[in-house]
Design a protein that fits this description.
About 70% of the residues lie in helices and about 5% in strands. The protein is mainly alpha-helical. The chain has a two-stranded antiparallel sheet. Strands 3-4 form a two-stranded antiparallel sheet. Helix 2 crosses helix 7, helix 7 packs antiparallel against helix 15 and helix 7 packs across helix 20. It is a multi-pass membrane protein.
């Protein structure tokens, strides 16, 4: 089974997908005049802008829901894996993916807002919605929805659960079956509580977990600050093949840096627009900018924290493509959660291993919760015409089961299946947002024009010539003088 999955992964994660991820991000960056640099201040301001409503969540809640999906085991075990197989230079390519991916995240999240719908009094949106309503290709939208349900409901939760279970076993000797059972019970409590409970959970847990992890990383870097220039030099020289030791694996540095970068920050993958579409905002570009910043938080802050903790202390390993060791800083441990735990335990005896286990518990569990919301949104998309409420119930049971099973199966199988799910979603979504790019950039220009006039931007799709943005048309009509007060926008399907 593992061999078959690895063969399929070789096709999905071919150099073509790597080039597509980087190329799309570069194109969007140039087309938007590098909005990820020009609008950094606006991104941070908008994070706290807006309030939740009966139908939607606040911008900050949507951000934390997205970060719950972005910040997971990829930020710890994924970074260690990238360094092991790609060398220190892989870190640079993770940064490159994040910088360019911020523009991709803007495009996809803005499109999610443009074509969102109100279904059962909750905002829903994502690639399936904008593929159907923006491109008019129903079968393509259904295909994405099905792939995403399988990926986030079956394949990806196992990676997160496995990392939690293995890290707790290493740190405290907790049996993986016990961990799996506890995770399954906790997940059931949250997902049976609905979207509002998910948003509230993410709003409080995500900032706490990310800030705590970054603070510890900064302390470790500060204690070894004299090594920081050497580490930065090693990252950049290895990334471009100039380092004597790691220059020969520049291709692996790019491949693993991009693969783990996309897996971690999810820019262009199509997961981010689901949560961002749930936000209550007056203009799609607002949440698009907020989601662009979420990529920075994930990779430039959290992933970098892991990378610097390992590199600045020399607690990392690098393998050549044939498996032979090129550098060994951590003896007898394979790449994964245990690798990072051993490294930090060597740095902080008696604390390092447990710290990583606790960080992974928060990081990975919130990601599993986010995966449920993504899968549920795609079921809601499929259920618009025919109500099949039992599908959501089956999804809940499936997520609980796969989380438990993922906690006890091998890490290699979990990572391979997770990579496959991410790759398939990325192929489908990046092609769609490239085709729909003009809609997102119309929104950006309109937002910037209204801001220049001193206005709080309000979206009018009709004035911009954007068709099938039915929710916004209904909303604007209800806001016109003479409209009945308190009228809520009706559920629309775009058909």
């Amino acid at each position: 089974m593992n061999e078959l999955v690895n063969v399929i992964n070789g096709w999905v994660w071919s150099p073509a997908l790597i080039a597509l991820c980087l190329g799309a991000g570069l194109y969007f960056s140039i087309r938007s005049r590098f909005l990820q640099l020009r609008h950094v201040r606006e991104m941070t301001r908008l994070m706290m802008d807006g309030k939740s409503s009966d139908q939607g969540v606040s911008s900050f809640q949507a951000l934390t829901m997205t970060l719950a999906g972005r910040v997971g085991t990829g930020n710890i075990a994924g970074v260690a894996t990238a360094i092991t197989f790609g060398g220190p230079g892989a870190v640079f390519w993770m940064w490159a993916v994040a910088f360019l991916g911020a523009s991709s995240a803007f495009v996809e999240s803005t499109l999610g807002q443009v074509y969102k719908e109100s279904i059962d009094k909750q905002f829903r949106g994502g690639p399936a919605f904008y593929i159907e309503k923006g491109l008019g290709i129903k079968w393509y939208a259904v295909l994405f929805a099905l792939v995403t349900i399988v990926a986030t409901g079956v394949l990806l939760p196992g990676v997160q659960a496995n990392s939690i279970a293995e890290s707790l076993k290493t740190a405290a000797g907790v049996d993986t079956t016990v961990t799996g059972a506890i995770l399954a019970i906790a997940l059931a409590f949250i997902i049976f509580g609905g979207v509002k409970r998910i948003a509230s959970f993410a709003e409080y847990v995500v900032p706490f977990m990310a800030l705590g992890y970054i603070v510890v990383a900064c302390i470790i870097v500060a204690l070894h600050i004299d090594q920081l220039p050497n580490v930065l030099s090693l990252i950049f020289t290895s990334a471009f093949g100039f380092d004597a030791a790691f220059g020969a694996i520049i291709g692996m540095a790019i491949q693993w840096g991009v693969k783990r970068g996309v897996y971690s920050n999810e820019a262009g993958q199509g997961t981010g627009p689901h949560a961002s579409s749930a936000a209550e905002v007056s203009h799609p570009a607002k949440q698009g900018l907020v989601q662009g910043f979420s990529v920075y938080v994930d990779t430039l802050f959290v992933c970098s924290a892991t990378a610097f903790m390992l590199l600045i202390t020399g607690q990392y390993n690098v393998q050549a493509p044939d498996g032979s060791p090129m550098f060994t800083g951590v003896q007898g441990v394979a790449a994964g959660p245990g690798y990072v735990q051993t490294a930090l335990e060597n740095i902080m005896p008696g604390f390092g291993s447990l710290f990583v286990a606790i960080a992974l518990l928060f990081f990975a569990f919130t990601t599993i919760v986010a995966y449920y919301y993504i899968a549920e949104t795609n079921i809601a998309y499929l259920n618009r015409a025919t109500k099949r409420g039992w599908l959501t119930f089956v999804l809940k049971l499936c997520m609980i089961a796969t989380t438990f099973y993922g906690a006890i199966k091998t890490a290699d199988a979990a990572w391979a299946l997770g990579d496959l799910g991410v790759g398939l979603m990325a192929w489908l979504n990046i092609a769609a947002i490239l085709l729909l790019r003009n809609v997102a950039f119309k929104c950006l220009r309109d937002y910037e024009a209204q801001k220049a006039q001193g206005k709080d931007p309000v979206f009018d799709p009709v004035a911009l010539g954007i068709a099938n943005a039915d929710y916004w048309v209904t909303r604007n009509a209800a806001a016109q003088p003479g409209a009945q007060a308190g009228t809520a926008p009706a559920r629309t399907t775009g058909r």
